[in-house]
Amino acid sequence: MWVLGVTGGIGSGKTTVTDLFAALGITIVDADVIARHIMDPGGPALNAVIERYGEQALQADGQLNRAWLRERIFQDNDAKAWLNALTHPLIRTQIHRQLEQAASPYVILSAPLLVENKLTELCDRVLVVDVPEEVQRQRTIKRDQVSAAQVELIMQSQCSREERLAFADDVINNDVSRDALQQQVEALHQHYLVNARQAAATKEC
Q1: What count of other Cβ atoms lies within 10 Å of the Cβ of residue 123?
Q2: Per the annotation, does 12 bind a ligand?
Q3: Residue 25 annotated as binding site
Q4: 87 a known binding residue?
Q5: What DSSP state is assigned to residue 43?
Q6: pLDDT of 10-32, one tens digit each?
């Protein structure tokens, strides 16, 4: 399967872009969705979190208190390293499984930390969804109802805009109208269909 990696900093609108590709019939393997389900109640990952932090890591309904854990790991590098060591192998296993099961002409691996977690090695091409950093800040504060300080911590935990763009084979500018965004997606989709067909033909030979 020909894999397109899609990434972008927080607030870049990566999900909006992948939703447009999904509307064109492309399977989306979303690392964020996988990561959320890794922490489902009863699973080994959440049980390990409870063992380390106790019931304070949970909401009243037994689900992970993601806001609490996010604040904890951004303040403690050791806690972040521990959580990454716990979850990354589980997430990678699910990513591989879902990529193998995809049935569309090509498949998208969507991950905010595609570059940082070296998931680019699973991809044939990388698309970066890009907006100015100030747009990232404004969108994230409005969407997540978090402080500017917390947004800065999240952005600092991700690679810089320049570092991300250095990995890009293609770039979508998402600081535009919905129509302009749609046009960019449709043009790239046609390009990726050709790439996937060529890759399949080469493999058959």
Answers
A1: 22
A2: yes
A3: no
A4: no
A5: S
A6: 889 999 999 999 999 999 999 99
For the chain, the domains span 1-26+105-205, 35-103
16 is in an annotated binding site: yes
- Helix or strand or coil: residue 71? helix
The total of other beta-carbon atoms located within 10 Å of residue 198's CB is 11
d(CA 114, CA 122): 10
| 11 is known to lie in a ligand binding site | yes
Query: Distances in Å between the alpha carbon of 123 and those of 2, 16, 108?
Result: 8, 20, 9
Report the topology of domain 1-26+105-205: Rossmann fold (3.40.50)
Q: Give the pLDDT of residue 165.
A: 95
Confidence at 74, pLDDT banded by 50, 70, 90: confident
Residues in the chain: 205
CA–CA gap between residue 80 and residue 71 (Å, rounded) = 10
Ligand-binding site membership of 62 (annotated): no
